[in-house]
C-alpha cells in the first residue's frame, strides 16, 4: 500500500468522521432545534442520509481503486473491505429505502407502526465505524512498516 496508502488512510478516517458526525450527532440533534417538526426533521434526514450514502460509495470506490491500482490486497483488506461492502449494500438497498418509505408515510400524515429498522441501522453504523477504525489502524501500520510514511 506504499503508493496509495495515504489516500486510503485519508478516505478511511474521513469516512469515520462523516458517519460519526451525521449518524451519531446530526440525526438526533436536529429534532432538538427550536421549531423543528417531526415531518421537517424526517425530510432533512432523508436528504442528509441519502447524501451520506453516496459519499460512502465514493470512499469505497476510491479505496478499492487505490488497492487494486497498487496491487496490495492484504489481510486487512480481505477482512474488512468485504464486511464494509456488505453493510453498505444492506443500507443502500434495504434499510435506507425502507426508512424512506416510513419517513414519507409520516410526512404525508399516516405515521407507520413500530419498527426496529432504526435499531438495525444504528447497529450497522456501529459495526461500520468499528471496522473502519480497525482497518484504518491496520492500514496505517502497514504503511509505516513499508517505510513509506
Task: Using brief descriptors, characterize the structure shown.
149 residues; mainly alpha
List the helices and strands and how they pair.
Elements: H1 5-29, H2 38-70, H3 75-107, H4 117-145
Helix pairs in contact: 1-2, 1-4, 2-3, 3-4
Description:
The chain has 149 residues and is mostly helical. The chain has one domain. Helices cover 81% and strands 0% of the residues. The chain is elongated and about 55 Å long. The mean pLDDT is 91.
Summarize the structure in short:
By secondary structure, this protein is mostly helical.
Please state the structural category: mainly alpha
- Strand count: 0
Shape: elongated
- Note the gap between the termini: 11 Å
Domain tally: 1
Gyration radius, rounded: 18 Å
- Main sheet: strands, sense, barrel: none
- SSE sequence, one letter per element: HHHH
Sheet-strand content, in percent, reads: under 5%
The percentage helix is over 70%
Average predicted local confidence, pLDDT: 91
DSSP helical segment count? 4
Low-confidence stretches: none
